[in-house]
Recover the amino acids of this structure.
C-alpha cells in the first residue's frame, strides 16, 4: 500500500491466523483508547513488539480486553478479512488478511497521534534478530534497509504460519508491505521463502527521487 495515496496492490485474498501480528493490533487499540501507559505497561509494549515476548502479550491481552480489541480495531479501521479468535484465550488465532493489515499500518503512519506512532515505531525498530522464544525472526522485511516490521510465526498442526509485515521507506514515499504465509517446509526454508518475496517486492519498487527513513 502506498501510504501517501492509499493505492493497494495485492496478490491473494486469503485469511491467515495472525500469530504475533495480533500484538500490534492490540497495542494500536490500547493507544487509540488512551489507556494509561505506565512505565510497566510501556515495558510490556516494548517487549511484545520488539523481541515478540509472548508473556508480555499475555499480560496485555488479559489486562486490556484483548479479545474485544481485535474486533474493535478491525471494525473502527475497516480492516477487511480481520476478526478476533474463536477461542478468546488464543490471541495467535486472530484472523488477518493482507489488505486488512496494510490498513492497520496506514492508520499508524497517517492517522495516529504522533506520540503513539513514535512509541510503536521505536519498539518495532528495536526488534532483535532472535526473539525471546529463541526463534530466528530475521527474515522477510526484518533487517532490510529503511524498514520497520512486526514478524509473526506459529505452528498449527503441520502448518507454519510465518509473516512479515511492516513499513518501508522508498525515497520520500512510504509503503506498507504485508507478507502472510502458511507453509509446510522447515522453519529455515519457510524463512527463506518469505525473504525471497520481500526482496522481490523491494526490487520492484520505483526508483526513489531522494533518500528517506521511516521516521519516528
Amino acid at each position: 500500500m502506498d501510504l501517501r495515496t492509499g493505492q493497494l496492490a495485492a496478490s491473494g485474498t486469503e485469511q491467515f491466523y495472525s500469530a504475533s501480528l495480533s500484538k500490534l493490533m492490540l497495542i494500536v487499540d490500547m493507544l487509540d483508547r488512551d489507556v494509561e501507559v505506565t512505565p510497566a505497561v510501556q515495558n510490556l509494549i516494548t517487549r511484545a513488539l520488539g523481541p515478540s515476548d509472548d508473556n508480555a502479550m499475555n499480560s496485555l491481552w488479559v489486562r486490556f480486553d484483548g479479545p474485544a480489541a481485535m474486533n474493535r480495531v478491525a471494525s473502527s479501521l475497516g480492516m477487511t478479512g480481520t476478526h478476533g479468535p474463536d477461542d478468546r484465550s488464543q490471541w495467535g488465532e486472530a484472523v488477518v488478511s493482507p489488505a486488512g493489515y496494510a490498513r492497520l499500518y496506514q492508520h499508524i503512519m497517517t492517522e495516529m497521534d504522533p506520540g503513539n506512532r513514535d512509541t510503536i515505531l521505536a519498539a518495532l525498530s528495536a526488534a532483535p534478530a532472535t526473539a525471546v522464544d529463541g526463534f530466528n525472526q530475521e527474515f522477510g522485511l526484518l533487517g532490510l534497509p529503511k524498514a520497520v516490521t512486526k514478524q509473526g510465526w506459529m505452528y498449527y498442526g503441520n502448518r507454519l504460519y510465518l509473516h512479515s509485515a511492516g513499513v518501508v521507506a522508498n525515497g520520500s514515499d512510504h509503503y506498507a508491505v504485508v507478507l502472510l504465509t502458511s507453509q509446510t517446509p522447515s522453519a529455515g526454508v519457510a524463512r527463506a521463502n518469505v525473504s525471497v518475496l520481500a526482496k522481490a517486492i523491494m526490487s520492484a519498487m520505483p526508483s526513489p527521487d531522494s533518500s528517506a527513513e521511516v521516521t519516528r
Residues 187-204 form the longest helix (18 residues). The longest strand covers residues 159-170.
